[in-house]
Each structure stands twice: as structure tokens, then as C-alpha cells.
Amino acid sequence: MIACVAVVGHQNNPLYLQSFTGADDALKLHHIVHCSLDVIDERVNNPKRSVITLNESYLGLLYPTESYKVYGYLSNTKVKFLVVTTDLDVKDTDIRSFFRRFHAAYVDAVSNPFHVPGKKIISRIFAVRVSGIVKAFAPGTYG
């Protein structure tokens, strides 16, 4: 089950964060997402990485905790997509498919002529689309 999704700008400014659990966990999920940003910066700025992995958008597992796992995806414009999941046995293919759909929804949202680049995404249509993508996510059957 997906607990939270987030979109973070290239300057680590939060653009969108939606929690799918109770309100009690919202602050904890914000903290987990924030901690994951350091891992992304560490992976992206590591000079020992090969050229093949630098071109890869999917960053994989970023930050495991006792009850959550955080996966990351980096767009060409350095916008970060994060997913916090409670399912500890998620296949990479399922998460990659999720990120492709999540990224497509983001592209549609920021392509709106009324959206100000670099500002929070406040589109209700985007929120509904993300909720639909999350509800459709079922490990092993996604794709």
C-alpha cells in the first residue's frame, strides 16, 4: 500500500505532497520524505557513478525504515518524485510503472498554462489523477 507520494522541485522545494493514511502519520511522512532528499542528492552527486546509471531516472530504494520504504525517481529537469510504501516486498517493475504514470500526470499538470513553474501544484485534477494511480497500484499486477 502506498502511504504517501511527493513531488519535490530541483531546489528541494516541495511542489506536492499527498498522504493516503490517517492524519496522525502526516508529519512523520513529511519527515521521511525530507530525509530521502539527502539520499537522492548523495546518489546524483556521487562522482563514481557510471554514465549508464546517470541516465537512469529510476533511483530505486532510497530510505528503508521499520514500517516504510521510500522509492525515488528523478526527471530530466531534476524534479524528484518520491513514493512511501508500507508494502515491504515491492517489485522494481511495479514501482517503475507507477513512476511512469505519476510522472505523466505531473507533466500534464505543469503543462497547464495557468500553472506557475516552480510553485506548488494546487490542481484538483492532478490530485484526483494521482489518487487514481495510487488506488490502481497493486504490486504484482501493475503495469
Walkthrough of the structure:
Helix content is 38%, strand content 22%. By secondary structure, it is an alpha+beta fold. It has one domain: Beta-Lactamase. A hairpin with a 5-residue loop joins strand 1 and strand 2. The radius of gyration is 14 Å and the shape is globular.
Outline the secondary-structure elements.
Layout lengths: L1 E7 L5 E6 L6 H19 L6 H4 L3 E7 L4 E6 L5 E6 L6 H19 L13 H13 L7
Antiparallel strand pairs: 1-2, 1-5, 3-4, 4-5
Helix pairs in contact: 3-4
Organism: Zingiber officinale (Ginger)
GO biological process, one term: endoplasmic reticulum to Golgi vesicle-mediated transport
Family: Belongs to the TRAPP small subunits family. Sedlin subfamily.
Work out the oligomeric state of the chains in this entry. Answer: single chain
The CATH class assignment is Alpha Beta
The overall pLDDT, averaged over residues, is: 86
Q: Which strand order spans the largest sheet, edge to edge or round the barrel?
A: 2-1-5-4-3
Helix/strand order: EEHHEEEHH
Shape: globular
For the record, the CATH architecture stands as 2-Layer Sandwich
Portion in beta strands: 15-25%
In CATH terms, what is the fold-level topology?
Beta-Lactamase
What structural class is derived from the secondary structure elements?
Answer: alpha+beta
Roughly what percent helix? 25-40%
Put simply, the count of helices is 4
In angstroms, what separates the terminal alpha carbons?
16 Å
Unreliable stretches (pLDDT < 50, length at least 5) are none
Family: Belongs to the TRAPP small subunits family. Sedlin subfamily.
Protein name: Trafficking protein particle complex subunit 2-like protein
GO cellular component, one term: cytoplasm
InterPro entries: Sedlin (IPR006722), TRAPPC2L (IPR044760)
